[in-house]
């Protein structure tokens, strides 16, 4: 029997879209490799969006936003039929935070989705991650 190729997969989820296809692909691969599986969602840091000129209690807004994101993440992961090692919900720069998670948790494959559309030619999270993350990547084309 050959040694599994990957030991720890990290799936980068965007909570706004349908993650069913992406999560199913990651689960199938993790299962075939007998690998650990973790998920990460990198959310916006409200302090970077709003300037000091805006009169907001940014910590309260950030906490409410993260609570909402946590609820959406829990809903998505409720249908996952594979044990998750970690559920990471972090704020900040996508590339930096994913790179940190890859290094900290010994991830050897990052799985992320890519919408094939006009807008993805201009702004692509997958392309940003390719230039920053030191592990192998699997980019799953997503419909819609």
TrEMBL record:
Keyword annotations from UniProtKB, A to Z: Cytoplasm
Localization terms from the record: Cytoplasm
Species this protein is from: Pseudaeromonas sharmana
Signal sequence range: none
Chain ranges of the UspA domain: 6-141
Similarity comment: Belongs to the universal stress protein A family.
Matches recorded under InterPro entries: Rossmann-like_a/b/a_fold, Universal_stress_UspA, UspA
Subunit (UniProt): Homodimer.
Protein name: Universal stress protein
Pfam families in UniProt: Usp
